[in-house]
């Protein structure tokens, strides 16, 4: 499969700035936390500026609550209508710290995997020592760095999967991209950030695979 060169994004804001951004958006309230809990968490962290994302555990701030906070060209983010179970997509390959706040390091949008299927991308990421992003982590990334979402360079978040009652995995895989304002999205949502899904075995030329090198609390 041909590879698309990855775009080099600017460094992430400092962690203290990220904390203030989440407070400004009211994410701490969604998570049932005081603003000072976020400030205290990042206060003594050092050596990670520009390379680390501050994330709230999905049990505290689910995707359905975070999606409307996304903005692009003055339009709010949204979850597609045929994904009412978006918050049931749980961590699949990643081990999350069992705490309200944690750090995600080594973010990559996976542009070089555009036009790969999730089934093809997952073993390649694993072989590189990477784990795919959760949907909530991907949303946090775009909240802090809107430039991470570009037309024709959006990304899947296959670290979140839905397990059916019989133990099998749902074939849908979450992704974050930009609405064209067609179909059920509605014309008024053209260019808005969109939380949708793709099939596990399908390829899409405009979707890479968001991934990270690690998750921790320090």
From TrEMBL:
Lineage: superkingdom: Bacteria
One Pfam entry name: DUF5701
InterPro entries noted in UniProt: DUF5701
Protein known as: Uncharacterized protein
Taxonomic path: Bacteria, Bacillati, Actinomycetota, Actinomycetes, Kitasatosporales
């Amino acid at each position: 499969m041909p590879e698309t060169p990855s775009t080099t994004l600017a460094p992430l804001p400092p962690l203290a700035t990220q904390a203030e951004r989440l407070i400004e958006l009211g994410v701490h309230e969604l998570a049932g936390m005081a603003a000072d809990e976020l400030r205290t968490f990042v206060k003594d962290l050092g050596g990670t500026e520009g390379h680390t994302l501050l994330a709230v555990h999905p049990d505290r701030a689910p995707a359905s609550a975070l999606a409307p906070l996304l903005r692009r060209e003055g339009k709010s983010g949204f979850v597609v209508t045929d994904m009412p179970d978006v918050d049931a997509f749980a961590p699949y390959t990643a081990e999350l710290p069992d705490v309200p706040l944690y750090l995600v390091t080594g973010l990559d949008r996976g542009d070089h995997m555009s036009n790969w299927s999730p089934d093809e991308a997952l073993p390649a990421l694993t072989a590189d020592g990477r784990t795919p992003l959760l949907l909530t982590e991907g949303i946090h990334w775009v909240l802090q760095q809107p430039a991470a979402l570009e037309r024709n360079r959006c990304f899947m978040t296959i670290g979140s999967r839905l397990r059916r009652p019989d133990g099998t995995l749902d074939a849908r895989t979450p992704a974050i991209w930009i609405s064209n304002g067609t179909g059920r999205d509605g014309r008024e949502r053209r260019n808005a950030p969109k939380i949708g899904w793709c099939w596990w075995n399908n390829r899409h030329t405009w979707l890479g695979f968001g991934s990270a090198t690690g998750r921790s609390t320090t």
